[in-house]
Specification:
Layout (H helix, E strand, L loop, with lengths): L9 H4 L19 H11 L2 H22 L1 E4 L9 E4 L3 H7 L2 H34 L2 H16 L2 H12 L6 H8 L11 H26 L3 H9 L4 H12 L1 H16 L3 H9 L10 H12 L2 H30 L1
Antiparallel strand pairs: 1-2
Helix pairs in contact: 3-15, 4-15, 5-9, 5-12, 6-9, 7-13, 9-12, 12-15, 14-15
Amino acid sequence: MSSVAVVRDPEISAGPPSEPTKRGRPASPRLSWRSLQRIKGASFTWPFFIGFAVFTILPVVLALGQSLFSEKSSGLGFGEAEISFSGVDNFTRGLTDGIFWTSMLRVGIYAAIVVPVTQIVSLALALLIDAVTRRVANRFRLSLLIPYMIPGIVATMIWIYLYSPVVGPFQPIFDALGLDINFFSGSLIWFSIGNLALWGNIGFNMLILYGALQAVPREIFDAARVDGASDFRIAMSIKVPYVRGSLVLTGVLSIIGTLQIFAEPTLFRAVSPETITKDFTPAMVIFNQAFQVGNLNYAAALSIILAAVVGIASAIIYRFTNKVEQ
């Protein structure tokens, strides 16, 4: 008698787990077809979580560990430095560091002006693009998104050239009009950096707000027009309330990015060192402590404090906007 090979269908074998038999034998441990599909779908998120753990969670844990130690040189500075456990001494020093908190206040005032202006301009552009035909909107949407696609270092160098009183294209116009304007002076340096931030962030915020506007049911607009509402009334009473969640999202992202500003003032320092000091922003203070002073432990503690301030500010704004919406 010849043997017959039994081939099992994988979908049939992956069916729902069998119920316990009447004889009391345990159910089969095999997964159901639906559970296998869920596991396959969840596997697409594993690369993100691996990258998030390696490049976000792990650096935070390492910085937290570094901040609990201090490095001291013995004697006259010769020989190897001694690393000892210092507890929360670095955090205590950071919480009472006047230079660090002065830079934090400086950037906080800058964020209080730049972020609302960015939000207002982005919302206005999104409403204008939403009001035109889709074909025209696609052209403007792409052109407004180009500044966001340019790396921050490159964008800063472009604007330093435009601001330059020696080779910049604006200076001959100012000379012809008899205006004495220097974008690198102490009174205009924040305006110069803010204009650069506005130029680079408007496209991204506008794109998110425009996408949210596309989700608003068009029947509401038709009903409002039948009732005699103007386009401005429709925009303020219907469109803006619908995109409030997206406004909160872009606002929180803008605050996070603004409080950590580093590349722009660092490059502006090369052309205006008398205005922008090495401790101009919190990120510059941390960079100075880590790579110029050489105190990595204290720099790690300042990084944790800055992250806590950014998180608290984001949570307060998110909570406040949710209360207003309710």
